[in-house]
Amino acid sequence: MPNNIEPHSKYVRYEFAEFAGKLEPVSYEIPTPTGREVLLKVDYCGVCHTDVHVHDGYYGLGQGKRLNLGDRGIKLPVTLGHEVVGTIVASGEEVKELSVGQQKLIYPWIGCGECSVCQRGEENLCAKPASLGVFKPGGYSEYIIVPHPRYLVDLGNLNPANASLLACSGLTTFSAIKKIQPIHQDEFVIVIGCGGLGQLAIRTLILSGISNIVAVDVSEEKREIAKSDGAKYAFDPRSDDVADTLVNVANGNCIAVLDFVGNEQTVDFGLKILKKGGKLVVVGLHGGELRYPIPFLVTKAITLIGSYTGTLAEMRELVEFANQHDLVNIPVELRELARVESAVEDLSAGKVPGRIILKIS
After folding, report:
1. Which residues form a coiled coil (predicted)?
2. I need a surface site. Which of 149, 302, 304, 316 has the fewest CB within 10 A?
3. Domain 10-168+310-359: which topology?
């Protein structure tokens, strides 16, 4: 594939040089892809809660303890952004199957490619990750390098801006939902946290034929969005006796909880409302510690699952699913790349009812 980039041309990516520091534009020379690498111009990039956590530099572990991401292999400076749709502008000499001008969704959860986990197709769980926007420069940028064509997925007929959400938000919810299936007609699924991920989860559940859905969120605005998306009931978890009320409206048949918040209170709430044989899938990373009586875990046969993003195969399946259904039609706000600092700040402060997507001109 010909490389149409002028030698020594410059581009800008937004990065932070210290955790919790400012996201500032830095000029770099546009890289020349080699081997199986592909260079794409970034068109759209979602702003995700994972970006907030990586920018903060830690996950809360409860009791004042932290998991410091600098100790987990994340090296500064960092260019965030892992929900990326881009247009191919060049590739290495070994790439024959792609063409300049093709627009692709990028799978960002790249592993080492060699270990047993990667060989099983679970690169998102690799112990030596090379994830774009975390360990490698991501989509808060004008250009991005992808190490292999296999990580590029055709969009089909999807809106490219909203389709960017499928690389993380959509994939994370899709993978979590697969972990609770099958759901029988009389069983209920509880969705805790109805921001961008929760909204996508409700839409995915409805489009999958699962209609008994209860939404739980502290925000009245997000509860209303959840009901408009198809949730039968929506509750404020701070209300008196809300757990008992929820169990009653579900006829004691809460078979699964999808927790998109992931703090001590939401996990405790989820465990309280599950029926025997139920599954709690924790996706959110707000942090804390888990406390639960072990005899209850055994006698109720509760399954507790941590779910982290999803596989490349699941993303391909998701894109096909999204093309067959109206999945990614959720509230989004487009912002220019230069406003990325405010986008991360607003998401961190809980001021985003849907999702912010960066549009790179």
Report:
1. none
2. 316
3. Quinone Oxidoreductase; Chain A, domain 1 (3.90.180)
